[in-house]
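User: I'm preparing a small set of examples for a lab meeting where we compare how different chains pack in three dimensions. I only have the primary sequence for this one, and I'd like the structure in token form so I can line it up with the others. Please keep the answer compact; I'll paste it straight into my notes.
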Amino acid sequence: MLRSLNTSATGMVAQQFNLDVISNNLANVNTTGFKHQRAEFHDLVYQTVQAAGTSVGGNFKTPTGVQFGLGSMISATANDLSQGASTSTGNSLDLMITGEGYFRVLKPDGSFAYTRDGSFKKDATGLIVTSGGYPLVPQITIPEGATQINIGQDGTVEAMLAGSQTPTKIEQINLAMFSNAAGLTRTGENLWVESAASGSPNLVAGGTSGAGTISSGYLEGSNVSVVEEMVRMIGAQRAYEINSKAIQTSDDMLGVLNTLKR
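Assistant: Understood. Below is the structure token output for the 262-residue chain.
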């Protein structure tokens, strides 16, 4: 059996994974706060026929070796955490982080998750929650009868209460900072969770300790570039076709062997 059959098959599998990543990026081109991914690959093990530096007699040694590789495979899906475009909404509970940092929310199992999606809303009790119903941490309840909500760039939440001429401070929204934000794990619903690679979160006010600022009335869009994804898609398609062509050529060579006669 020709090694090229299995080698080319690994290339086709790798490009199929690449296309899966590209498809997910394109599917989320309008997802608030979405960060696009990039598939990365590495080569597989090599079979050594002759090691470099092999003695060929006397003091003579081969300057190079003889090796052939056995294909490729996916090595990582790198997260691009660059800033997405901003969209003005006019809704004071829509928050955008300009710079680094994540909002922290509470999941039903008591664990924390992190998000760049700042499209927050009030539930029936006035609690600020995500579109999925997860409360923002620290939990903030808008007082009944509040006529205006102001959220500063540092995350200070103030409300104008009926009968008052000055705003009342309700709470402080802190941003979660990670030493390696690219190591966070995606869980869907625009949420990320802490991993061993990301490190533990450091909660700081907006605009301090390297954290970004918070803009009320704006949302961060997806950072997916449709043009770049289309170019990657074409590259993946051509690589897939070339690998399939190599398999077809290997099959033709085996067919020639099968027709040989003594």
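A couple of notes for your slides: Residues 3-80+235-258 form one domain. The first strand starts at residue 37 and ends at 43.

User: Perfect, thanks.
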